[in-house]
Amino acid sequence: MIALVAIGGLPLAARAQQAGKVYKIGLLSAGRPPFNAEERARLPGELRKLGWIEGKNYVLERRYAEDRNERLPALAAELAGLRVDVIWTVGTPASLAAKRATGTIPIVMFAVGDPVENGLVTSLARPGGNVTGNTMMSPEIAGKRLQLLKEMLPGITRVAIFWNAGNPYSANVHRESEGAARRLGLQLLPFELRTPEDFDRASEKALRERAAALIVVEDTLTADLRKRFADFAARNRLPAIYGFKLYVEAGGLMSYGASVEDLLRRGVAYVDRILKGEAKPGDLPVEQPTKFQMVVNLKAARQIGLTLPGALLVRADEVIE
To answer: What gap in Å lies between CA 198 and CA 220, rounded to an integer?
Structure first.
């Protein structure tokens, strides 16, 4: 590897960082800016572990579409115009916008759907072009979430699923959930969201259609709405399962999905290798999730009067009191 070739006692990568160049990393997301310091520090924190210090050897150009996908092309073009050294994209819509904006700047996708189906890469093993990163897709996720709901409520028959119709990843999860629901003898009630303004209409309709539980498909839009989902579920005493831990931290009952922390760490390792000149994005395989996480919120369970089975609790990776 290039990083192991030393001149003057230092690896080439280390010498490059000492040379004084300040790299530009673009961040492109369809969602809103993180609302707390912990979330804002996640990407810079992982970069710091690999020797990248914001303001010293790199600057982070942040661009957020604020849940308006139509803003993504202009934001992606803006980052391309700044000639950033790499673009970190959050989710499928942002990744598609970045790919359309540039065919030369390296793009590292974080937590996308099926990148081959969506035309982001030619294959997972050999992406080709200027795009690589990781995907959240895993065939068993949709069925596992429905099975967990049945374990909590054995007599359940009607389950609402909220998903962002503007995100191809969410559409894939919705499609897989429909198949899993048929196998489990459940009726799945789909409720599409495209903007935050759709929340009230969709949630009110779910109540009218007598949904007994909720699935909220993870993406930037529903993550921005996570507190509203948690409050809605608690107010109407509805068990709900989400994709990521951050939904549970906002008051949600349970989450099951790929480990965001693991995907972040692995994605940042790609950014590091690309900036150091150790690899080109087209040669780095798109990584699939290998770690999954189930988190349970006992306070949320008490709020809706639900006693969770002991067998379920012992399988949880984390229990929030």
So the answer is: 15
Q: How far is CA 188 from CA 29, 35, 162, in A?
A: 29, 32, 10
How far is 137 from 125, CA to CA, in rounded Å? 15
Report pLDDT digits (tens) over 260-316: 999 999 999 999 999 999 999 999 999 999 999 999 999 999 999 999 999 999 999
**Three-class secondary structure of residue 169 per DSSP:** helix
Spatial neighbors of 102 by CB under 8 A, at least 6 apart, are 76, 80, 87, 130
CATH assignment at residue 107: 3.40.50.2300
- On whether both 160 and 100 belong to a single domain, the answer is no
Angstrom CA distances, 17 to 23, 112, 276, stand at 9, 30, 8
Report the distance separating Cα 295 and Cα 298, nearest Å.
10
DSSP string, 112-148: ES-TTTTTS-S-SS---TTEEEEE---TTHHHHHHHH
pTM of this prediction? 0.89
Domain count, the chain: 2
List the domain range (segments joined by +) for residue 266. Answer: 2-135+260-290
pLDDT digits (tens, 9 = 90+) for 161-176: 999 999 999 999 999 9
Residue 54 is classified by DSSP as B
Rounded to 10 degrees, the C-alpha dihedral 93/97/98/99 comes to 100
**Are 75 and 159 in a shared domain?**
no
In degrees, to the nearest 5, what angle opens at C-alpha 267 toward C-alphas 262 and 269? 100
Quick one: 39 and 154 in the same domain?
A: no
